[in-house]
Amino acid sequence: MKRIKNPTYWLITILLVLLFVFANDIALAIPLKETYKLKEIELNKYDEFAKDFDLKIESIYTKQDIFITTEISGYALIQPDQASPNKAIKLVFSSDDKRYEVDASIIDRFNLNSLYRDKGIVGINHGFITRFSPLKLENGVYKLYIYCYENENTIGFMDTNRYFEKTYRTFKEVKK
Amino acid sequence: MSVNKKNLILSILSVVCVILFPCFFLYLQNTGIAIFSDFLNVAGKFLLVGLALLGLSYFIFRKVEKAALFSNVTLLFLLYFALIEKAIIDKFPMLYYWHIALICLFIIFQIGYLIYNKVNLKLANQINQIFLFIFAGLILFNGIISVPKVLQAASNKTKTETHENVEQAIVVKNEPQKELPNVYYFIFDEYAGFDSIQRYCNYDNSAFFDTLENMGFVVSRHSLNYTNDTYTEIPNLLQLNRINSPSMTKADKQSTASNPFLLQLMKEHGYTINVLDMYSFIDLAVVDLYWDPHFFTTHGTLESYVVKNTFYYPFYDLDGYDREIRHRLNAFKYSEESSKMADSNLFTLGMFWFPHEPFIFDENGNKTNDADHSNLRDIEPYLAQYKYASKKIIELATEIIKNDPNSIIILQSDHGYRYPDFLKNLYGIDIYDMDVESPYMRNILNAVYYQGQNIDIDNYSGINTLRTVLNKLLNANFELIEQPK
Predict the structure, then answer these.
(1) Candidates A6, A11, A24, partner chain B, best to mutate (most B CBs within 10 A)
(2) What is the per-residue pLDDT across B333-378, written as a single tens digit (0 to 9) for each?
(3) Which candidate, B10, B110, B34, B29, places its Cα nearest to that of B304?
(4) Does A22 reside within a domain?
(5) What is the ipTM metric for this complex?
(6) What is the count of residue pairs from A and B with beta carbons less than 8 Å apart?
(7) Which of A157, B209, B248, B266 could bridge across to B347 with cysteines, CB 3.0–4.6 Å?
């Protein structure tokens, strides 16, 4: 058997080629501070929980960094009659043939006191904020849904009626 | 192991020229604007990187000629990475930073392999000489073409000194020191006057000016300043005279504001000087109290311009804009707190780099998308930050009048919104007649609260407004200078 000349050279060359092929997956798998990962989910996941609830997207901010990091914040609550220590909110981006979800951090919102008072809401942990890279999304237009889990009996999935377009270089809200 | 001294020097020099060329290029292209100490700082850091790379390469290649050749090639990729990335992405938009980094790494590795195995020392030395010839030549060429700018800067410096002598001729009647009301003087960079914002953004800012009038301010909606250059106008305002001119170098303009006449005057009349200075105009040794923001900005520095072309650009100053946001909000907070510092004889001077770009706030004070931070081509980012600045100014004035109703508050800007100037000089869009637009770009914010009393500042320039206020406050006899046209 013929011996390979310069095995180190070939090893490094092949390694660089492999890194190039899987570069997106590797780069997007790097854990970044206070940043969540988008995950692809089944197209009809959460549809069974569809219902309206109090929800507001308050700010959308896109950084022009190499990950096009996007920050979305607001609040969501399903009038819980008891505290929701395990509350969870997810943002779900859905197109005709793909659906992705991203987790959000739950934050206390003291400044919504009047809303809580008017509706008899328990607890203050109804705000959310998430940061994620949208690069995992396939290019296209996505509708934003919010999944809100208060407790086992109180779960909602609501259409925000807001659309986002993802291209190779941008992720921005669009009118439809 | 013997090393040819001539080759050693040539090799090191070639690396030094390659690594320093971007620093020299930007510094020399901006003669009069860039600051020499900034150049030394960034050139020093780059030089260290270049020499470290050369040292590392020497460990691999064991020949200084080959190590220098490899370093030079690698530096080309590192220093001009953003340009390479842009060129590739234009053709292959699905590729990202990491793909380009891997492509560059692949090419560097292949070239390194070739240098190690196939290139002899003589050839390596010859290629290094070509690198040296090209980059030293480019540095020299840029140095030569910047000579006229240097000469012009030197000539303007002489003119400044003559103006300074004229300044000393202003006569002020010194009165025995007595209890005088607190004075708050705030300058907001690029806050467009009534006509300026109407013309370029089609925005009627009457609500802002009406609110000021209802609070007891006298407002001049059509006031102009003499130029639309911050580093000319702010020092001139602080000197109460036209000392600086736009053709002077930035450093010379800045130097005339270090211990300005206005502060000396107020001090002579028994005022404690309290300064908030976002430009580092004022020598803090001459003031009594000052805002210490523990803040540094990389926005618009020579270093930021050099680094933004390199492979390092995504990692450079990652929280810079969050810091800018905190910085501006803290400045307003400090200004509000100043109204609780003393019952009398406090002169607060606040120079705000705001609503000038970077455009970091929308009209509600939320942070904007990064793409808008330096977007001077569209009016929306400026207008949004302008509206937020208006809210903050009203809040500030309200707080001061609440805490110190017997005070004097002067709100001014250095110039208006320079939209035609940005389009022409930054984007090459020459659709405005600059002679026609000049007054609109110089239309300033000019409002005075004089203990709720009336004071005539209608159509006055910033300097004449200051002189009018000081005449009334200090019983001085400043004559009004020629109004801007």
Answers:
(1) A24
(2) 999 999 999 999 999 999 999 999 999 999 999 888 877 888 999 9
(3) B34
(4) no
(5) 0.89
(6) 49
(7) B266
